[in-house]
Amino acid sequence: MNPRHRYRVGVALTLAASACTPAPAAEPRPEPDPPDRAPADSVRGPPVSPHISNDIRICVLQNGNMREVSVHYNTRTGDTTVNGRAFSEAFPPEAPGYAAAAPWMVLNEPIRFRGNRYVKYGRARVLGAWEVERAGEYQGTPLFREAGESGDPVVLYIPVSPGCVFQPYQNIANVAAVRG
Questions:
Q1: Which residues contact 54 (CB under 8 A, 6 or more apart)?
Q2: How do residues 16-50 score in pLDDT, each as one tens digit?
């Protein structure tokens, strides 16, 4: 090996060895001084709210129409009451007018309203009592439409449980045909 070649090999080995050598450890930084502590009698926990309950409004079906009623919600226990009664007793989801357990709803059957055929459309959704108005009735269940809509409704909203939970049914004439 000629001297020039030997020099290059030596430099390459030195560079390779230095690349594998770990860097010297950094000196640890000194710990900051701890903050001054307040005397124990001045340390307080988070404020405790004197209110463990709230009066709120929940949308329910009452006398065939959607209404908001005042209920009492206890934030500590999670209980919701209406005039001292459990909300589920005062407004049970199986009460007349709610369609969740109606056979035609369970079987996803189409319904007829004003000569039009409506089919279940999407998932149940929550609407405000002010967003819907009574349109009619189907087998004892009130039907609702969008407030202010005129003519035959494009979508009927059928109450399925308290809390203004509705199952939409769309007019079959407005359902887009499948194109091949």
A1: 72, 73, 75
A2: 444 455 555 666 777 776 666 655 555 565 555 55
